[in-house]
Design brief:
- By secondary structure, this protein is mainly β.
- The protein has 2 domains: 179 residues, Glucose Permease (Domain IIA) (Distorted Sandwich), CATH 2.70.70.10; 165 residues, Jelly Rolls (Sandwich), CATH 2.60.120.260.
- Helices cover 8% and strands 36% of the residues.
- Strands 1, 4, 6, 7, 8, 10, 12 and 13 form an 8-stranded antiparallel β-sheet that branches. It has an 8-stranded antiparallel β-sheet with strand order 5-11-9-21-20-25-18-15, with no helix packed on it. Strands 14-27-19-24 form a 4-stranded antiparallel β-sheet, with no helix packed on it.
- The termini are far apart.
Length: 408
């Protein structure tokens, strides 16, 4: 971590120098990069609602909201004034003094949604234009592990503080496709999803709940109600994080050390009461070519869709970019194998020092997404130690495959 801190300090000094010489760097560095490449677009005046909930289940956004958009300077301006979408106004409600679900918090530019290591879904179809670490030199910065989707209608949505990332820049995604899994990476006080909606090309924050106050909206851009009439999902996915260290009902478990688990290279065995069956294996990461890998294989009871989850321990797991490759089957051609790589942040699970103090999540099941497998070909998931990092610890423990019923 020391080299990340040193690089972060160098980056800060460079930014300070640019300010001195008159080069403007916005607070949101990602928006600066996007502005250089995004096409010029006009803000929609009467947009058609297009957004769906970014999670599974029946709870409404407001049921799960911890922090709202501040219509008074939603660019993290700490001016002591917070204005909610319905026009209610508070003063002196900084992040440390506001009441969650009511008036949090001054300068906030999105919605903090109570998602504890749950799948994060795209609110609408579009193209992924950001996917990775917000600041690769400082994983405790801003949105941490994040993704952003350009919906092609003048809006872009961002999803921050993820623990797993399923998409890459350039991917085309559909409505309510899984982008990742929520977590507590970046500048975060605990597991949740930060979801923000912006106008392109300037990444100006807007509130998807619009403005219903009885006085003019203080936001500098227009706010419109953007949620469709029925924003829920038609499919329900098991919440892997809801079972502690236990596997989900009906799941197939492959633990490290089982007959279905194998490895290459040097792995160390460690024991802890918090690990699945009391043990795990770990190895050192590398910024070069792979020197170690672990493979889970399982014969499943039936053809169909399964949610794949990995158990991330609270010890010997410090990698911020652990690559899991899932080998599954094309459901339209069951003779064709397909593979997909998901990146998991093991670093921000367990107990760690965050930007606002210590965070304690305990070990967690983390969803790698939903895939189609057959009973005739073993499901296979491979973890590589080629993470792009030198000297961090990469842990392997249990992996579960949970059967799900997909809607037609």
């Amino acid at each position: 971590m020391r080299h990340r801190q040193q690089l972060a300090l160098i980056t800060s000094l460079i930014v300070a120098l640019l300010y001195i010489v008159g080069v403007w760097i916005p607070a949101n560095a990602a928006s600066w990069q996007v502005n250089l490449h995004a096409a010029q677009r006009s803000d929609p005046q009467d947009p058609t609602p297009f957004m769906h909930r970014p999670y599974y289940g029946s709870k409404t956004i407001l049921d799960r909201t911890v922090s709202f958009v501040d219509h008074d300077k939603p660019w993290y301006a700490d001016d002591g004034v917070f204005v909610r979408y319905d026009g209610k106004k508070w003063t002196g409600v900084s992040i440390g003094s506001c009441k969650g679900g009511v008036n949090c918090y001054d300068g906030h530019n999105g919605y903090d949604i109570n998602l504890w290591f749950e799948p994060v879904l795209s609110v609408a179809a579009g193209k992924v234009i950001r996917a990775g670490w917000y600041n690769s030199l400082n994983h405790a910065s801003a949105l941490g592990l994040w993704a952003a989707v350009d919906h092609g209608n003048g809006y872009v949505t961002a999803y921050g503080h993820l623990s797993a990332l399923l998409v890459s820049v350039g991917d085309q995604v559909g409505t309510q496709w899984q982008l990742g899994t929520s977590g507590t990476s970046g500048s975060s006080t605990g597991p949740h999803l930060h979801m923000a909606t912006y106008y392109l090309p300037n990444w100006s924050a807007t509130d998807p709940f619009g403005w219903t106050g009885d006085y003019p909206d203080p936001n500098v851009v227009s706010d419109h109600y953007l949620w469709v009439n029925d924003p829920g999902t038609s499919t329900t996915i098991p919440d892997l994080s809801n079972n502690g260290s236990a596997i989900s009902p009906g799941a197939t478990l492959v633990d490290d050390g089982d007959a279905g688990w194998s490895h290459t290279g040097k792995w160390h065995k460690a024991s802890s009461s918090s690990d699945i069956n009391g043990h795990l294996h770990w190895t050192a990461t590398t910024a070069g070519a792979e020197t170690a890998s672990a493979t889970w294989q399982a014969t499943l009871p039936a053809d169909g869709y399964y949610e794949v989850g990995v158990f991330i321990d609270d010890n010997h797991a410090s990698s911020g970019w652990a690559p899991y490759t899932i080998y599954s089957v094309d459901p339209t051609d069951k003779e064709t194998e397909v593979h997909h790589t998901v990146y998991v942040d093991q670093e921000h699970i367990g107990s760690f020092q965050g930007p606002y103090g210590w965070v304690h999540t305990g070990p967690q099941w983390v969803s790698l997404g939903t895939y189609y497998f057959t009973s005739s070909a073993a499901a296979r998931i491979v973890l590589s130690n080629a993470t792009g990092e030198n000297g961090f610890q990469l842990a392997t423990d249990g992996l579960e495959l949970v059967p799900i019923a997909m809607s037609k």
